[in-house]
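Case study B.
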Amino acid sequence: MKKIFCVFVLSMVSFIALPCAGTWNACGAQDIQDMVQDAITNCGPGSNFVIVDLCDDNHEYHVRVRAIQ
Amino acid sequence: MKRTIICSALVFLLGCSEEKSSEQLLKFEISAKYSVNLSHVGLSSMRAFHIALVETEPNLFLIFNPFSRTIDSLLIDGEHTKVTQGIEIPFEGPNGVESFNYFIPFRNHFIFLDHNSVYLPDSGDLRRVDFSRFPLLRNENLEDITRGNSLADGFDFLDYKNSKIYLIFESFTNNQKQLVSYDISKNEVELINLDLIKEMEKHIITYNDAGIKVENPYHPFLKVEDNFLIISYPFSNKFHLYHLLEKEQINLEPKSKLFKNEKSLPDKNWDNSSFINYMEISNAWQDDIKFGSFFKLGSSLYYRIINGGKEDENSNNFIEVFDLDFNKLGETDLSKIHSDLGDNFLPIGSKIFVKAKTQSDEDILDFYLISIDKN
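Model:
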């Protein structure tokens, strides 16, 4: 179970220190909401990433931040 | 002696009215369960793999290992299947890629794609090409490469013979989608006229807040074949073939007797200021039937997997099988043949690799091989 634990730890890390791209794992509705709020606050223009809810049938959330024109 | 499960399905050739109908017998054979130890490379069978298929080595999968940041090889050979750790992909530096969505082998290295750039091997380093710098794309506000193709299915975006990449770009403001080719040798992009189905707009579920957009995974799939492209959708049975030399689009709509043709449209009457409400609508749409991307099987067949969606907590996986002209040869419910088949079905030469639904241990990968024969 150690690798699954590592996945969940990664999912709790704020976007503040990480790039807003790629695919990120989350667990549950609250985690998803927190990550989207985090992205609103901290992700720069043109950010584009997917959140996968590992605890809810791998539902996906495709998040995009408008690029500066 | 290996125990195999054989199911013969009498199927009818399905197609448009001008095609001649006939009967064909498809035989599906599922192997005994195989297992391979992953512990020495640190992969976990409990996670979906981030995969690239290798055209020149059909029995091989490449897997991006997020724990070691290496591209590992999974060689499928029944009881002799093995996994080998590969080269490391640094996070930064001349050979580094901070984050990527897709990768594919190219010239003894790899091409990587993120949401708006491609990383190309160049004299031992990786050279980043930012697509937003091309006026042809910037002027049309085509900012992002769509994320239709699943990371776990691989994404064949490369025409190796002509050194061209094919991608679908999209605009943030109006969801406009555009098929684009990028010539690696000439460093040029070209817009390709492709008519996507109008129904796609009805399947988009969007949450907006403070300049950020959250969407459901409705985006089309794209696969590059020799001289043509296959474009299909996760929400519909419809798909397109685009012949690159003739610049001709063909639209196909194979019917089924086992599953419906399209996801139900999402409920548009929702409180779009509530993210919780958005999640409920989007997740209900995602739990409905899902059409997978197309794969070539051996030298004579194509297939795709359709997940029937959650009905009474069952989620059966169906398979559609086509010939090289995309005449539908048949279909069957794989979940009724074997109850332990997982959700990722990938071509391994002339067979289909599928992870077991129940994995015995995270350090052990359990899987089956499916053979399809036609009489």
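The first helix of chain B runs from residue 135 to 138. The remaining cases will be described in the next quarterly update.
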